[in-house]
Every structure is written in C-alpha cells, then in structure tokens.
Amino acid sequence: MRRESSRPVGTPSGTHAGRQTAAALKARAPDESQSQARHQSAGKREDRQAEGRTPEASEAQQAAARAAARRAVRILLARQDDQGWWSGRQAGDVTLDAEAVLVREFLGTGSPALAQAAAQRIRSLQQPEGSWIGGPDPDASCDLPASVLAYLALRLAGDSPDAYHMAVAAGWIRDAGGLAAAGLSTRMWLAVFGLISWADVRVPAPEGIFLPARQIRAGGGWTGCGHQEAVALSIVGTLRPVRRLAAGLTELLADSRAVQDVRARSARMTVRSAGLTVSVSVAQRAALRRCGQWLLDWQRAGPLVGRRPVLPSALIALHVLGYPLREPVLCDGLAWLDSVTARPRPPARPDGPAFGTSGRHVRLAAERQPPVRETALAALALADAGLPAGATALVGAGSWLLTQRVEGPADGTGPQPDAGPYGWTFGRDGYPDVAGTAQVLLALSRIDLPGASGAPAVLHAIRWLAGTQGRDGCWERSALSTVLAVQALAAHGAGDGRALRRGVVWLLRAQRADGAWAGQDGAADLRVTAAAVPALLAAGVMPGKPPVRSAVGWLLSRQNLDAGWPGTAAARAGRGQGRGRSDPDATALALTALLAAGGTEVTDPADLAADWLVRAQHADGGWQVASADATRPGAQAGSRRRGPLTPGLLQPLAALGQYAVVLSSAETVPTAAGAPLH
C-alpha cells in the first residue's frame, strides 16, 4: 500500500485553522490511554502477521479491491433513474401511509375504501418480528414510531387487537419501550386522539419558534425536528385538540402502572373537537397567527420542480387554527396525500398495464419524499471510486440535485433576518437542514456541471449554512452536523473562513480524552469520529497533529480481530460480550478515515480492512449490513427490505474506491458505462 501521510487524497490546500485552532491543537496532547490503544493495535498487527499476514497488501488483494469496486459501480450505475436520481425506498417507509389514515380520520375526509387500501399496504409491509420500517437507515431508530403509527392506523381501519399480526406487533412495540419511547411526533398523534395526555407531550412554545436559528435548537425533546415540523407541533401542542376514539391502546403500554394511569386520565378527559379548546394569551395568539401564516407561505412558495412534500401534521395545525378544508393549501395537501399513498385498486383491464410493478413503486417512493439523500451519497461514492467529475452519471445526479434545492420565505432567523432558508433536506418536512445541505454541497464539489449552472445555488446554500452556526461554533449542538458543515465549507473554500475556523475550534474542544467524538447519546461514536478525521484534514489540520493521531489511535483500538469494525448499535448491544459483529458500513467509514490520515501505523489495518470488505461483498455487488441483534427473528429480512442503496452499497464502494486510488492512481478500471474508473 502506498503511503501518503503528508496530505490525504482529495484534501484541498490553502485553508488553515488559524490561531484559535493552533491553541486548541496545543491543548490536545496524547495521553496514556491513547498510547495504550496504539500499543494494543500494534499487538494485534503482530498477531496477524504471525498468522501469515504480510505487512503490505499483495497484488492479488489490490486486484480484488479494484474488482469489488468495479462490481459495485456497475450495479450502482444500472440503478440510476433517467432523471439522474437514485432511490433506496421502494420497500418503503409506512409512516406516511399511517399518517394519511390519521389525517383523514381527524378531518373527517376518509372513506372505508381508502382506509382498507391503506391497511392492506401497511399489513403487507409488516416485518416478520412484528415491526414496521420507519426509514432507510440501518440503525432502526425510526422503527418504533412507525410501528406505533401503523398499529394505530390498523386499529382505525378495524383490525382487532386479538388478530395474530396485531398481537405480534403489540409485543414488539412493548419490548421496544412502548408508547413512552415512541418519539415526539408520534406522541402528538396519540394525544390528538386522546390516547395519552397532552401534559406528557413537550412541544416548542409558538413564541420561541422564530428565534434565531442558532437558538431554536437549544434544547427540548424536539431538537431533531425540522423547522416546519416544529412550527406544526407548536400550534397543535398549544391548542391541544382531542378527537377521542372508542378504544384505547393500553395493550402497547410497557407496564401495568402506566395502563392504570392512562385509564384514569382517560376517564377524566372530556370529549373535545378540533379548534381553540384551551385558553391562550394575547402573545400566544399573535405567535400562533404568525406560525399559521408561515405554514401557508411556505407551502404556497412551492418547490422549483414538482410539488413540495406535505407534512401531515401541518394540515392538522392549519385546521385547528380555523382554516377550512376548502383552503387551497389544505385541498392541495390532501390531494397530494391521496396521490402518493395507497388507493383502492381499479378494476383490472386485460389490455391495461400491470398494477404495482417495481418501477412504479420506485417512482412513487421518490414522489413521497425525493431521494436527495440517496442521490447525494451515491454521487459521492462514485466520485470516491474514481468516476470522472464530468461523467454522465455524475452530471445527471448533480443537475437533479440542483432542482431539489429548497428555498422559502424569510422567517426572521439567522444573522440576516430578511434572507430565507436555502439548501437541501434529507428530512420529511421539506425544510432545509444542516446535514442534508452539507452532504449535497460535498457531492456538488465533486461534479463538473456544465457552465456555471450550480454556482449561484452553492453560494446561497453556503451563506445559509454559515448563518445557522451557533454562537459557540457548532451546528445544531451536534458533533456530526458540525463535522459535515466543516467539511462542506472547506470543500468550497467558503468566504473568509471565519465560520470554518470556529467550527474546527469547536470540534477540537469537543474531542474526548480517548480521541473519539461523542454521538447524540454522549458515548464515543465511530461514525462521528471516522467522519471528523477527513473533515479536520480538509480544514487544514495537519495529519501529524495530536487530534488526528489520537482519533486514529481510537479507531485502531476498536478494530475487531477479523479486521472489521462493529457498527455503533452492534457495539453497544455487545457490551460485556465482546466488540460486536463487524459491519460493512462501519468498516468502510473507518477505512476511509485511515486512508485520509495516512501514517505507517495505519497501513496494515487499512489493508486488512479492505480485504475484509472484499470478502464480505455479495455476488450481486452489494454488502449486507449487520443488525444490532443478528439473532433477533426477522432481523436480516428487515435489513434486506430497507432498499438496495442504503445501507449496504454506498459507503463500502466509496471506501474501496479510495483504497484502489491510493494503491495505484495510474491504473484504470472500466465501468459499466465505458468510462474509465481512475
């Protein structure tokens, strides 16, 4: 393996961290635990060499890595849509189908035929263990909220709780934490239908919604919400409408005390209809009017192409504010929900097209939520694999991403109150977010778009991204969001670099003593740490500085004996019983960080990790992501149904592509489109 420790592949030059960064670097000296981790890693390398492993990758291993990248590139190019996007959602998320049932029930616009069509689709997507998939991410963090909503929708459609599929679902939900762990948005729906008390639903106050963006994410259980979702939650949570159902969901509660508490509250609760059912202050009324007007303006603004996805809770919020169903925004929103969710099947025609073909499912999923995330990550993976920046596949992806940028009316947030939001989103509420905007900017930095078609969009997005930075230098009080923002700003050489320097200083101060960075739960997180290494290098931190070397040491200390790395969920599930099962996505992330950092101590672990990825590749060119609990019934089936792109293809392809480029930048690998991969 060729060593390039002076500067990682693809690192832009000319950006430095400044005096603040230098001071933070001096404060980051390697400690005893970091030295111990390096000694442990060296011991593992010696053990592997004693087993017959050579310190340098053999020619056969190099050829195998290039062949694995070629197979993955071919399958990825074959799955690109003619419009330039990729989608991994055709097996899809049931959240929107369930929420459509709830919206129709609350507004009184449903019908038995629509309810049965939705119920049939929800039943068909139930996993063997009883849950439903709530998103494409492998960590299954959205499965509990989606499962609760799906269960409630089936109850509304008339399914008996004694039915086998409902009993299995109820058992899974209870084991996963029950209603108490279902998340804020799901608990809002439960409160709307009188299944839990509004006192147990903590929502943002409408007066605080339009604080500067750097303050709105300061705290509360709603910190992960997008702006549109936060506005809708503040309206509904302040007015507290209740449309009580005939039956409760006590079978989903995790303990008997909670069951008794819910029954007692339900007995005291009065039946209320939608509307202003609680007393609000004059200030709250003014704030609610402003929130409602913002929702109307945001939806009326519309996207550049097609229609903006509608957030179901926003329709409830507008209705409880007093807007009638004939309001155009409400009419259009309900029509959009009808167009992208299950409908009664039309009578079959002998000469008509087949119903429910795979192509229709893919395009329907793209209409429900544009696959911005999958397309940006796929473009990055192809670029990392060596596809030329002007390749047709990348130009098509970049052009499509530009059409998906989101801009809207000013909301009074940020350093420029008159400037509206501008960027991209991976979320479902259609409002730009930091992580989505940063990753799309990274993808666009690797694509040569014709002329200067992307320059204005990139400039506006960078300005909006810099404006959402917190006063302490971070974004959204999240290490991962800050890492992505820093990397995006560095890739585009953004402005005067002040936001970039402040972000780097925050990351250096947030680094743990063991060299890692923490995730959302405060524990050391492999994904964040692996992403932080190339971000710091791109921002101008030298590879030999203590923060980089200590992060590398932590990554090496987490490597399994089979040369892979466990995913975050698998590692935490295996505490006390070993490291956890090696995972392709986690291994690829760690390998990418090691390749970026360089150094003699990473050569053997990187070679062995690449060899592990090659051996873990399936015959179809993809990889199977390990479940946090691989022994759980249906875990592997559930992972397979999450879609063909994420997880299981993009990150390993990017890592092996970078590995092949580092090994031999002069050699070329033909792609399915006939373009050289070099």
Main attributes?
678 residues, mainly alpha, Glycosyltransferase
What would your notes on this structure say?
With 678 residues, this protein is an all-alpha fold. It folds into two domains: 18-88 and 364-677, Glycosyltransferase; 95-195 and 225-344, Glycosyltransferase (Alpha/alpha barrel). The protein is 51% helix and 1% strand. The protein is built from 28 helices and four strands. The chain has helices spanning 18-27, 32-50, 59-78, 95-107, 112-124, 143-156, 164-175, 184-192, 213-216, 227-239, 256-268, 282-301, 312-320, 328-340, 358-368, 372-384, 392-403, 434-444, 455-467, 479-491, 498-510, 526-538, 546-557, 568-573, 584-597, 603-616, 635-640, 650-663, and strands spanning 406-407, 422-423, 669-670, 676-677. Strands 1-2 form a two-stranded antiparallel sheet. Strands 3-4 form a two-stranded antiparallel sheet. A hairpin with a 5-residue loop joins strand 3 and strand 4 (676-677). Helix 18 (434-444) packs parallel to helix 20 (479-491). It starts with 17 loop residues before the first helix and ends with a strand.
Task: Write a compact overview of the structure shown.
The chain is mainly alpha-helical and 678 residues long. It has helices at 18-27, 32-50, 59-78, 95-107, 112-124, 143-156, 164-175, 184-192, 213-216, 227-239, 256-268, 282-301, 312-320, 328-340, 358-368, 372-384, 392-403, 434-444, 455-467, 479-491, 498-510, 526-538, 546-557, 568-573, 584-597, 603-616, 635-640, 650-663, and strands at residues 406-407, 422-423, 669-670, 676-677. It has 2 domains: 18-88 and 364-677, Glycosyltransferase (Alpha/alpha barrel); 95-195 and 225-344, Glycosyltransferase, CATH 1.50.10.
